[in-house]
Amino acid sequence: MGQSIHLTAADGTPFAAYVAQPPTPLFAKPRGAVVVLQEIFGVNAHIRAVADGYAQEGYWVIAPSTFARVKPGVELGYTPEDIGVGFGLKAAVEALPAPGVLQDIQTAVDHALQASAGRVAVLGYCWGGLLTWRSACELQRISAAVPYYGGGMTEPGEAERMPRCPVLAHFGDRDPYISNDSVAAFAASHAKHGVQVQVYSANHGFNCDQRASHDAAAAALARERTLAFLAQHIG
Questions:
Q1: What does pTM read for this prediction?
Q2: Sign for the pseudo-dihedral over CA of 179, 185, 188, 190
Q3: Which of 28, 33, 80, 145 could cysteine-pair with 112, CB 3.0–4.6 Å?
Q4: Residue 117 and residue 106: Cα distance in Å, rounded?
Q5: Do β-strands 120-125 and 33-37 pair in parallel, antiparallel, or remain unpaired?
């Protein structure tokens, strides 16, 4: 259903992205666009499936490689070895001088705006959830953001950022990486800033059906809420 394309960031850095488009003639034109931000495992089969799923709902979807600045073509599984590799690549990207990978995400947002002729939302998982939160606070021309269990986004420094668009944040109450206290504090501090927080009886990574932590009920409810949120804010 999808295809790989190549984009070039404002500083001249090339990166790959996976694009999925809504089926025709069911959708004469996209309802809007969604930028899907990967976990620490790259734009792998799961992220492509997520992109395809939102395309089936009528959205023009792009999933940029956010590892491209340190290593292109990354596609990992979920073994302990893969997790170690993914954490190392994430650390390398996080160590880049500002704006780092945010300029690649802005390029993807701008491309999505042009390709879809509609409003754009950013949606991401795990590290991609953190990048989604940063995008909502730092980037331009984003109409909505949906971070799933964004590691670090509820901690000091990140939590103090202010979003420029409506945000729907999903967390699991059994997440070993994100404390319930930090989620509660985050929700309270941003209640007046257009941020909705939903907490599920689930573990980290509950949306991914390729991980042992997958929770089908939580994933289905989060997706239902996400689709309603997207329909409200981007069409």
A1: 0.97
A2: negative
A3: 33
A4: 16
A5: parallel
